[in-house]
Design a protein that fits this description.
Oligomer: single chain
Radius of gyration: 25 Å
Strand content: under 5%
Order of helices and strands: HHH
Largest sheet: none
Shape: rod-shaped
Number of strands: 0
Number of helices: 3
């Protein structure tokens, strides 16, 4: 498969992995001991679990969405950035390839 036909480039995959790691960190921050009927644990209402961890998860999800939406960079040899001489040379080589 040709690399130009892929929807993502290397940067997209790296950003996606970073976003996933941030989400995992957020879920780890939410984890901890819970309360039972016999023992009340006030830590379930701590700021880390109620405020910080959901914000960290949200940031991770937003960064993953950005990684999916981000458009890969186009190569430098795009026809739009070529000058007139290069366009003519490119047209001649494409005509020669057809023959």
């Amino acid at each position: 498969m040709d690399r130009r036909n892929l929807a993502f480039d290397r940067t997209n995959f790296i950003l996606l992995a970073i976003g996933f790691a941030i989400v995992v960190i957020g879920f780890v921050l939410m984890s901890g001991d819970g309360s039972t009927e016999q023992v009340y644990n006030a830590d379930i209402f701590s700021a880390r679990r109620i405020k910080v961890a959901p914000v960290v998860c949200f940031i991770g999800f937003v960064s993953m969405i950005y990684a999916v939406i981000r458009k890969p960079k186009t190569p430098v040899d795009d026809v739009a950035v070529l000058d007139e001489a290069e366009k003519e040379a490119l047209a001649e080589t494409s005509e020669n390839e057809k023959n």
